[in-house]
Design a protein that fits this description.
The chain has 189 residues and is of the alpha+beta class. It has six helices and four strands, in the order H-H-E-H-H-E-H-E-H-E.
Amino acid sequence: MSLEQLIRERRTIRKFNTSPVPQDLVIQLLKKAEQLCPYDGKARWRYIYAGSPEERERLTGYLLEKITDNKIAKFALGPLLKPYQKLFSEVPAYIIVLAKREAVPLKHDATYGTVCRILQNFQLLAWEQGLGMTWRTEPFIQNELFFGNIGLQEDERFVGIMLLGHFDKAPKGRSRTPAEQRWTVIGGS
């Protein structure tokens, strides 16, 4: 498969089958993804993996704890909690990605950009292996309870949580806006 075809065919996967995702495979794919991104050799990020049933159940609790901790939110959002709990608990594996906060804004942006490139490469490499994923960053995830539970340090930034697993059917692609429609020439139209 050509790189262009791989990029065109990769999809966000939200429904996974029950096949386990070996931690060794995830590590191998992350290593390859990192090798494809130039950086100074000093990794300023880390990954947290949850792949066993116990780890996934614990993480599901962490993801929903902010909502279930608030009585009003729990009452108002109670009917929505079951589907989210089911969704999160059925995901075969998770990777939480954290990046170092840098004092210099340009360096901070460069670190964040490098991590995002690594994750994009990781998604493409995983797709070649029949692994799909969803990259989640929703505001309800990003809270002090969750960050405390996963061990986010003061000098770190949450980049996202990757839900990954094998899938039986890829969704159809959506139409995309052609680049020409977003094109502007400086000083022109």
